[in-house]
Specification:
- By secondary structure, the protein is of the alpha+beta class.
- Helices cover 27% and strands 18% of the residues.
- It contains 4 helices and 5 strands; from the N terminus they run ββββααβαα.
- It has a 5-stranded mixed β-sheet.
- A hairpin with a 2-residue loop joins strand 1 and strand 2.
- Helix 2 packs parallel to helix 3.
């Protein structure tokens, strides 16, 4: 950087170039699949995305058999519908930990991340939808002297 002797010279110094925005590149494994990990509550999902017919398999079962509730099926479909990629990718997921709701959220997070690894131009759409942000809310731990995390035992004057 040039040495400045007065404030007047400050305007003549060329402004250094801003660092360019990070360029996201396609990340595929040797089988041509994109891999990502999704998390929600205590559930962790491993997700692989590859071109196909739109089949979604969770823990070796069809997703509509594994997640029987329509709300959970909708949660799984959200990133695919938001990017208009229905029927274009086969998705294989293994998920462990937590309950069904947390597992559905973890798979959704994993699908979103894997889609951005396969098609980096989808990142802006998924980011705007909030699918790439890990929902960090978890259950608060139980404290001693309390019935639950914050609930006190019933007070009695006697």
């Amino acid at each position: 950087m040039a040495d400045l002797s007065s404030l007047a010279e400050l305007g003549t110094v060329a402004v250094s170039e801003q660092p360019a925005a990070p360029v996201h590149v396609q990340k595929l494994d040797k089988n041509g699949r994109a891999y990502a990990t999704g998390k929600r509550k205590d559930a962790i999902a491993r997700v692989w995305v590859k071109p196909g017919t739109g089949k979604i398999v969770v823990n070796d079962k069809e997703y509509d058999k594994y997640f029987a509730r329509p709300v959970l099926q909708m949660i799984l479909q959200q990133p695919i519908v938001a990017t208009s990629r229905n029927g274009q990718y086969d998705i294989i997921a293994t998920v462990a930990g937590g309950g069904l709701s947390g597992q559905a959220g973890a798979v959704r997070h994993g699908i979103s991340k894997a889609l951005t690894y396969y098609e980096p131009e989808l990142r802006s759409i998924l980011k705007k939808g909030g699918f790439l942000t890990r929902d960090s809310r978890t259950v608060e731990r139980k404290k001693y002297g309390k019935a639950k995390a914050r609930r006190s035992f019933q007070f009695s004057k006697r």
